[in-house]
Structure formats: structure tokens, C-alpha cells
């Protein structure tokens, strides 16, 4: 699954640690999700969408 | 006022340190008191491991679940495959007397420890592999 998290995060000037703190997850989680190495659960995907104030489908796309 | 929450790493550290401290006391005390401390160590480990598990995020939980299922299983099978090493004469017999005066009890404990160690090794290998693969 592809995602735009790295771009969205950069647009807001957030580090991976900043985003991890907002999501209450580890920085490793954010890194793995950004790199497409780990697909988040639906609740975490919703949390990510909430943080960016966007819809899930605008952040995550099928490969 | 919200209380500061300990991280999963802190809970894991508390779990490990307390467990090994209680095990050390159990080995030192031996007998009924030692057994009580050994049980207390088991309870301590379970309680604080659960608290650590609750504080972990889903990524770490996924790594641990994967590692316990596949690494733990492979470690278990490997420890069983190498079990005949344990029963070779003289290989581990010096340990038996140190563990317990009862040879049957000592052999049982040693066998259980062998299998658990195998599972832990398998878990650790898989856990490290997971984190390398997901970097």
C-alpha cells in the first residue's frame, strides 16, 4: 500500500518523532509506515487521517 | 490531573529486573520459600509483561506476535531436535545436582529450561530479523 505521509508530514514541517507523538506510536512505526514496510491497522489509519485532517483514501492508495 | 504513563520499555525493564531478582532469591533460598519466590517471579513477569504489552503500539505488537509465533515455534522445534544432546552422558549431569537433590525433578527443570531457552532464541532471531526487514 502506498501513502503520502512523508510528503504531508514535510508540508507541515513535522519530524517523524513529531508525528509519532501526535499518533501516540513509536517513531519506528511512522518510519515503517512511510516506507511502505508496514500497513497500519484501520484505527491507526483513521488516526493518521485525523492528524492530517484528510480522508483515508487521500493518504493511502493501493499499489 | 493525568498521571505520567510509563513507556513499554520501562515496564519491560521492571518486568525483567524484578523477575530475575526474585529468581535469584528463589535460587538462594531454595525449599518451600524458594518455591514461593519462584512463583512470585512468574506472577511478576506476567503482570508487568502485560502492562508493557498494553503500552506498546501496534507495530511493536505485530513484531512480537510474528516473532513468538514463527520464531518461538522454530526455536521450540530446534530445541526438541537437539534434546538428545541433553541426555548424552556427562554433558549436563554436573548441573543436575546443583538444580535439585531429586534427579527426576532436576531433569524435568533442565528439560523445561532447555525448551524455553530454544523458544526465546527463536523469538529473538525473528524479532531482530523483523526490525531489519522493516527499516
Protein described:
- The complex is a heterodimer of chains A (63) and B (135).
- With 63 residues, chain A is mainly alpha-helical.
- Chain A has one domain (2-52): Orthogonal Bundle (434 Repressor (Amino-terminal Domain)), CATH 1.10.260.40.
- Chain A has five helices and two strands; from the N terminus they run E-H-H-H-H-H-E.
- Chain A has a two-stranded antiparallel sheet with strand order 1-2.
- In chain A, helix 2 crosses helix 3 (27-34).
- The termini of chain A are close together.
- The model of chain A has no long low-confidence stretch (mean pLDDT 94).
- Chain B is mainly α and 135 residues long.
- Chain B folds into two domains: 1-56; 57-135, no CATH class.
- The radius of gyration of chain B is 18 Å and the shape is flat.
Write a compact overview of the structure shown.
The complex is a heterodimer of chains A (63) and B (135). In chain A, 62% of the residues lie in helices and 6% in strands.
Any idea what the radius of gyration of chain A is?
A: 10 Å
Helix content of chain B: over 70%
Number of domains of chain B: 2
What's the name of the CATH homologous superfamily of chain A? lambda repressor-like DNA-binding domains
Which outline of chain B best applies?
A: flat
The parts of chain B where pLDDT drops under 50 for at least 5 residues are none
- Largest interface summary: A-B, 14 and 9 residues
Percentage of residues in strands of chain A: 5-15%
Helical content class of chain A: 55-70%
General shape of chain A: globular
Tally of individual helices of chain B: 6
Number of helices of chain A: 5
Major sheet description of chain A: 2 strands, antiparallel
The radius of gyration over CA of chain B amounts to: 18 Å
Identify the quaternary structure here: heterodimer
SSE string of chain B: HHHHHH
Name the structural class of chain A.
mainly alpha
The overall average pLDDT of chain A, rounded, is 94
Amino acid at each position: 500500500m502506498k501513502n503520502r505521509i512523508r510528503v504531508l508530514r514535510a508540508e507541515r514541517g513535522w519530524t517523524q518523532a513529531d508525528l509519532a507523538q501526535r499518533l501516540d506510536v513509536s517513531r519506528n512505526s511512522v518510519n515503517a509506515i512511510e516506507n511502505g514496510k508496514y500497513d497500519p491497522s484501520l484505527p491507526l489509519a483513521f488516526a493518521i487521517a485525523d492528524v492530517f485532517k484528510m480522508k483515508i483514501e487521500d493518504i493511502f492508495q493501493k499499489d | 490531573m493525568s498521571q505520567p504513563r510509563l513507556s513499554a520499555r520501562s515496564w519491560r525493564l521492571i518486568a525483567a529486573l524484578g523477575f530475575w531478582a526474585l529468581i535469584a532469591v528463589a535460587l538462594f533460598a531454595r525449599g518451600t520459600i524458594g518455591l514461593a519466590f519462584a512463583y512470585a517471579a512468574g506472577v511478576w513477569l506476567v503482570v508487568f509483561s502485560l502492562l508493557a504489552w498494553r503500552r506498546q503500539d501496534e507495530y511493536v505488537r505485530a513484531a512480537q506476535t510474528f516473532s513468538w509465533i514463527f520464531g518461538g515455534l522454530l526455536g521450540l522445534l530446534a530445541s526438541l531436535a537437539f534434546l538428545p544432546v541433553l541426555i548424552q552422558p556427562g554433558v549436563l549431569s554436573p548441573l543436575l545436582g546443583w538444580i535439585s537433590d531429586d534427579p527426576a525433578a532436576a531433569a524435568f527443570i533442565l528439560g523445561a529450561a532447555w525448551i524455553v531457552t530454544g523458544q526465546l532464541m527463536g523469538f529473538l532471531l525473528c524479532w531482530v530479523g523483523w526490525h531489519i526487514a522493516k527499516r
